[in-house]
Design brief:
It is a single chain. The protein is mainly alpha-helical. It has 21 helices and two strands. The longest helix has 31 residues. The radius of gyration is 25 Å and the shape is globular. 52% of the residues are buried.
Length: 571
């Protein structure tokens, strides 16, 4: 099928929205080559604008680690605010954080504590990058793209990331490592300003969000027309039905709350028995949500496991070691220019293979197939690295690094972001598809989508839950269909959010561990450090083989039902 005007316009919008991924790649690679300059000891350097900062390996590890540490913070906070503020608004203003981070890095002075300024600048950049990676998947889904284009649009995250990696290496080669202020401050700062201006014009509010805010019909229709929607009337009707269903659900839950709070229907607090404390406390109600999603319900538990394990393996495969530390692995035998050229060659290989995979392989052969092949290739090169590569073997080391990049690009680089957006319940299935490990006798009114947790067991007549809590204003979830009836258990309304939240948090946490810990790992194990990444990839491949469903071309209901047939994993 050819690309319609709507597809082409949305591709442009998504490209601008994913420019934060460009900064992701750029920040991963910006210190790779200039670290030699930062660590050197140069005489007669100026007091205000020193070229060399005399950093040691611990300082470098801290600089590398503080970038994903900012991502960990962002992945914990941003998802809860995105629904209230709106993903498009946050994405527009997010470039301001990139600009601040670049200013801190580029203006680092000796008298002002250059190391501390670079450290804080990378932390701020990490917050901004993680914000992009967290918000883009739900934002893309909210644009209501053609289903066959979702993998391409979400694949833009990885494509822009690789372009950032490539540009960092290219500018290092052109400017020279002694011009590190331009490499880590000026160049990305100019690009951030450019992204801010384009984003302010092109990153649009979702028509669904406009209806939820109460915009009139004319405004929503204009937004649909601007997005090149070919059937505006039909699209508007579907969106209106979805918003009406959500409003009815909130009214039902309000009525349910009033009824359940009458003295005659109050029951002893089940949560007080489990956790101890007042049942209406937000903390205890959230704990009950987590208990159900992570322990009681098999489908949600397996979905969160797949998301967390897959995104953690994205980093535990050791791929970012290639981009952040490859200069040190190749230097010593080759000249600086040769090493830079080799790194650019590896990055070009990544860009080409990832682009082919995003456009052709993932949609043709499936998400799971591409991930499994990707991991198997990486496992092979991890174990070959120990035998063939190492100090004094630059050619062998380069081939092994190239093999790791090739394997990663086949599927592991793009698929996790796609699968995170596709896992979750359909919200329209009957209760007999709820594969809980323990029976659940609780019922909720039809059409309810707010999250309610009981302060007492359900009565014989299946009365409504007593203490509802609506987290919809804090949660960003993909648009699933025009009408979303209630799930079989109220906590299931937030599975999609939990899947994305767990995936992003594990991704950034694992990245922090790898980038911060790699220098110590190589100091202790040398080339055998890659055996650790190989072993972790073997474990991840076994987990995905058992638990990961194939999501290509399937409805969410099918995927959700298949998760019930996966082995019973319990904490």
């Amino acid at each position: 099928m050819g690309w319609s005007a709507k597809d082409r316009f949305q591709l442009g919008v998504v490209f601008i929205a994913t420019l934060g991924a460009f900064h992701f790649g750029y920040n991963l690679a910006e210190l790779n080559s200039v670290v030699a300059s930062l660590k050197c000891d140069v005489e007669d350097q100026t007091e205000t604008w020193p070229i060399c900062l005399e950093l040691n390996d611990t300082h470098v590890a801290a600089l590398q680690g503080f970038f994903p540490l900012g991502g960990v913070l962002s992945s914990m906070i941003v998802p809860f605010q995105s629904r209230k503020i709106g993903p498009h608004t946050i994405l527009k203003w997010n470039n301001i954080l990139f600009i601040i981070g670049c200013l801190l890095k580029g203006l680092a002075t000796s008298s002002g504590g250059a190391f501390a300024m670079i450290l804080i600048g990378r932390f701020v950049s990490g917050v901004a990058v993680a914000t992009t990676m967290v918000l883009v998947p739900p934002y893309v889904i909210s644009l209501n793209p053609t289903p066959s284009r979702i993998s391409v649009f979400l694949g833009m995250l990885q494509v822009n990331l690789i372009i950032g990696l490539l540009m960092a290496s290219v500018f290092s080669l052109i400017i020279g490592v002694d011009g590190w202020r331009y490499i880590i401050g000026v160049v990305p700062g100019v690009l951030a300003i450019f992204g801010f201006m384009l984003g302010w014009w092109l990153i649009l509010e979702s028509p669904l969000k406009m209806l939820e805010r109460g915009c009139d019909r004319e405004q929503v229709m204009q937004a649909l027309k601007r997005m090149r929607e070919p059937h505006c009337e039909e699209a508007y009707t579907k969106l209106q039905n979805q918003v009406s269903t959500s409003s009815s659900a909130q009214e039902n839950d309000t009525a349910s709350d009033t009824k359940a709070d009458t003295p005659s229907e109050k029951a002893p607090s089940q949560m007080t028995e489990i956790y101890g404390g007042p049942a209406k406390s937000l903390l205890y109600r959230v704990m009950d949500i987590l208990r159900y999603l992570l322990i009681t319900n098999k489908q949600s538990r397996n979905s969160i496991l797949v998301s967390a394990a897959l995104t953690a393996e994205l980093q535990l495969s050791g791929i970012n070691v290639v981009y952040s530390y490859s200069y040190g692995l190749l230097a010593g035998v080759w000249s600086d220019m040769t090493v830079q050229g080799a790194i650019i060659g590896i990055t070009l290989l990544n860009l080409i293979v990832t682009s082919i995979a995003a456009v052709f392989w993932i949609e043709r052969y499936g998400r799971k197939s591409c991930v499994m092949v990707s991991m198997l290739v990486m496992i092979l090169f991890h174990f070959l690295f120990r035998e063939l590569a190492g100090a004094g073997k630059p050619v062998e080391t380069l081939l092994m690094l190239g093999g790791l990049v090739f394997g990663f690009s086949i599927g592991l680089g793009s698929v996790p972001f796609i699968v995170m957006a596709e896992l979750g319940p359909p919200f329209g299935r009957s209760t007999n598809e709820d594969a809980s490990d323990e029976p659940d006798t609780t019922d909720v009114p039809s059409g309810s989508t707010s999250l309610s947790l009981s302060n007492g067991k359900a009565s014989k007549d299946n009365s409504v839950l007593a203490t509802p809590i609506d987290l919809s204003d804090r949660v960003t979830m993909p648009v699933i269909s025009a009408v979303q009836p209630a799930p079989s258990h109220p906590a299931l309304a937030h599975v999609s959010f939990a899947v994305i939240y767990a995936g992003n948090f594990c991704n950034w946490t694992a990245q922090f561990v790898v980038l911060f810990g790699f220098p110590a790992l190589t100091a202790a194990l040398g080339a055998r450090a890659f055996l650790v990444f190989g072993g972790l990839t073997v474990a991840a491949a076994a987990t995905m083989l058992v638990y990961m469903p194939e999501t290509k071309g399937r409805e969410r209901g099918e995927i959700w039902s298949e998760m019930a047939r996966r082995p019973c994993f319990k904490w």
